[in-house]
């Protein structure tokens, strides 16, 4: 089955190559205005969890009270110690030759309780120092407002499940715009709505690990979309005239390929459940949740005895309020999976039952899902980009994360170079052959860091960080040199393909 799929993709490429006069991807150059960058997030790198007036986040609480829910029992108390080493981090960015740096703000450094009462100016000063240093080095800032470290204080009122979350989040965003807006060109409201809601409120993988699947995940997503729209409108009307920046949201989307030709409908359905339900309300002229998502959740709800669908409904006013609230589409992409129809209907209330699809590995390489390594499937990236263009009326796509993991410390990381080389070629093909509007590309991640429930066991950095050393030294991996050459030449310089 994999051979069949691989064969089909190879055939399509060959056909394009003929139309394109035999041009190899590697001969393409990135457009002159295309932007390159690298990314991190606050909880994953900062450490200093209780310093300088910072309040407790859900991740502090979760890792301190439930270390058994983290593979290696670790936490982000120190992480990469970037709170103290941000100057060194900016040196790494300079070596890479990035145009921009994507990082996130820790909400509880700014409002320690989460409630918009007393601002902690030590937190404001910290991010001012980073932004000023970026400006001094001609590196554009892309700031994620929310990358999962919710103030623990908000959990007393249900966190993101409380409709008032929209107000608390908007006041936090307003404070960030006021203090930092003059030096931030790109804002992201949320990182990965699917993981934020399904893995943290529906499942047990991410803090606060509520595990109320099929209910809490939908409530969270509903409030998240409203909060995103509120903050977009706030920026659009009040801050854009002054600061001229752009604002969007980062959607995580892996590609789902039909396992057999009978699985086309299943593959499309899981795309709609995993990301379409967060993209369509914002990016489609139709607005609202996708019909297939509404139908399947309503159907399963009724089978389970609910008198109403577990998926909340938007009012027509809300649909219009959320629709069109983007300047670009942020996209986090990692790998590809095969999707198959799963006809058996369980009566257990669960997000995963609602969509009736099972997934399997798309890989034929040495790595597979069961050992925790991601598969290298560059054609899935290209197909996803074409699907996004076709499904959502050709938005500007800003790739806000792309990368692959190692399970050990690998400094000469040939597999990561192979991944980046192939994914960047697929990206160039999407731009030049498929005419997808991709405007920027972001490496995940600048350095090895705290990978949530995987602790320090899964490493995505192009810089190695020695977590046994109190100084947390950073050492460039082979991929850091490769990426520097790609960014500097604005093309995919030669590399060896390995699995
Ligand atoms: C995918 O298809 C193959 C046969 O083509 C089958 O063996 C496998 O079980 C299918 N995977 C799933 C998850 O159904
Ligand atoms: C901060 O947390 C550390 C443990 O990570 C602890 O040793 C230290 O006393 C705490 N500091 C404050 C000010 O609470
Ligand atoms: C700053 O960066 C921009 C684009 O990233 C570049 O065009 C410009 O030449 C740079 N300026 C300096 C002083 O390095
Ligand atoms: C953003 O503001 C502009 C200028 O006021 C307005 O034309 C546009 O409709 C606004 N965008 C949204 C999505 O409301
Ligand atoms: C289908 O789901 C039901 C309810 O969860 C379960 O009892 C049954 O064993 C499943 N059947 C198959 C063939 O998997
Ligand atoms: C997948 O990985 C596991 C663990 O390393 C290994 O035992 C298994 O043979 C691998 N499967 C395939 C198909 O490569
Ligand atoms: C990491 O740090 C420890 C403690 O300082 C040291 O023993 C070890 O050699 C370092 N590892 C690497 C790869 O630098
Ligand atoms: C371009 O890439 C080559 C290696 O392929 C490297 O030697 C050179 O320094 C790079 N140029 C720039 C401007 O980065």
UniProtKB/TrEMBL annotation:
<protein>
    <recommendedName>
        <fullName>beta-glucosidase</fullName>
        <ecNumber>3.2.1.21</ecNumber>
    </recommendedName>
</protein>
<feature type="active site" description="Nucleophile">
    <location>
        <position position="401"/>
    </location>
</feature>
<comment type="similarity">
    <text>Belongs to the glycosyl hydrolase 1 family.</text>
</comment>
<feature type="signal peptide">
    <location>
        <begin position="1"/>
        <end position="25"/>
    </location>
</feature>
<dbReference type="InterPro" id="IPR017853">
    <property type="entry name" value="GH"/>
</dbReference>
<dbReference type="InterPro" id="IPR001360">
    <property type="entry name" value="Glyco_hydro_1"/>
</dbReference>
<keyword id="KW-0732">Signal</keyword>
<keyword id="KW-0326">Glycosidase</keyword>
<dbReference type="Pfam" id="PF00232">
    <property type="entry name" value="Glyco_hydro_1"/>
</dbReference>
<dbReference type="InterPro" id="IPR018120">
    <property type="entry name" value="Glyco_hydro_1_AS"/>
</dbReference>
<keyword id="KW-0325">Glycoprotein</keyword>
<comment type="subunit">
    <text>Homodimer.</text>
</comment>
<dbReference type="InterPro" id="IPR033132">
    <property type="entry name" value="GH_1_N_CS"/>
</dbReference>
<dbReference type="GO" id="GO:0008422">
    <property type="term" value="F:beta-glucosidase activity"/>
</dbReference>
<keyword id="KW-0378">Hydrolase</keyword>
<dbReference type="GO" id="GO:0005975">
    <property type="term" value="P:carbohydrate metabolic process"/>
</dbReference>
């Amino acid at each position: 089955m994999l051979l069949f799929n691989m064969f089909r993709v190879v055939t399509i490429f060959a056909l394009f190559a003929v139309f394109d006069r035999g041009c190899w991807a590697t001969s393409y150059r990135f457009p002159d205005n295309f932007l390159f960058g690298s990314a991190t997030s606050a909880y994953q790198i900062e450490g200093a969890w209780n310093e300088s007036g910072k309040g407790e986040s859900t991740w502090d609480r979760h890792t301190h009270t439930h270390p058994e829910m983290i593979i290696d029992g670790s936490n982000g108390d120190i992480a990469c110690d970037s709170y103290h080493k941000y100057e060194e981090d900016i040196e790494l960015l300079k070596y890479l030759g990035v145009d921009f740096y994507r990082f996130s703000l820790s909400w509880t450094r700014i409002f320690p309780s989460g409630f918009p009462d007393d601002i902690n100016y030590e937190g404001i000063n910290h991010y001012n120092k980073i932004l000023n240093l970026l400006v001094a080095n001609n590196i554009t800032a892309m700031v994620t407002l929310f990358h999962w470290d919710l103030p623990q204080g908000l959990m007393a009122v249900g966190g993101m499940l409380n409709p008032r979350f929209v107000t608390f989040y908007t006041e936090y965003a307003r404070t960030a715009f006021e203090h930092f807006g003059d030096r931030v060109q790109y804002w992201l409201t949320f990182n990965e709505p699917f993981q934020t809601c399904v893995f943290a409120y529906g499942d047990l993988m991410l803090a606060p690990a509520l595990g109320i699947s099929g209910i809490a995940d939908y409530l969270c997503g509903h409030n998240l979309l409203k909060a995103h729209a509120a903050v977009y409108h706030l920026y659009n009307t009040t801050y854009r005239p002054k600061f001229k920046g752009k604002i969007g949201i980062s959607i995580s989307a892996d590609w789902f390929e039909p396992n057999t030709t009978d699985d086309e409908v299943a593959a499309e359905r899981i795309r709609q459940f995993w990301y379409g339900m967060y993209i369509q309300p914002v990016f489609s002229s139709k607005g609202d949740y996708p019909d297939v998502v509404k139908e399947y959740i309503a159907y399963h709800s009724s089978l389970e005895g609910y008198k109403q669908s577990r998926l909340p409904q938007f009012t027509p006013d809300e649909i219009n309020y959320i629709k069109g609230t983007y300047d670009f589409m942020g996209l986090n992409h990692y790998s590809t999976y095969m999707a198959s129809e799963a006809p058996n209907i369980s009566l257990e209330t669960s997000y995963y039952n609602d969509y009736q699809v099972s997934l399997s590995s798309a890989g034929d390489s040495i790595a597979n899902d069961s050992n925790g390594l991601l598969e290298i499937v560059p054609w899935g990236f290209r197909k996803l980009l074409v699907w996004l263009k076709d499904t959502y009326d050709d938005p500007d796509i800003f790739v806000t994360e792309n990368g692959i993991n190692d399970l050990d410390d690998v400094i000469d990381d040939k597999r990561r170079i192979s991944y980046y080389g192939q994914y960047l070629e697929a990206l160039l093909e999407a731009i030049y052959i498929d005419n997808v509007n991709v405007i920027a590309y972001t490496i995940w991640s600048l350095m090895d860091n705290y990978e949530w429930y995987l602790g320090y066991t899964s490493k995505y950095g192009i810089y190695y960080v020695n977590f046994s050393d109190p100084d947390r030294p950073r050492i460039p991996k082979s991929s850091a040199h490769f990426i520097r050459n790609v960014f500097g030449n604005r093309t995919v310089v030669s590399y060896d393909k390995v699995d």
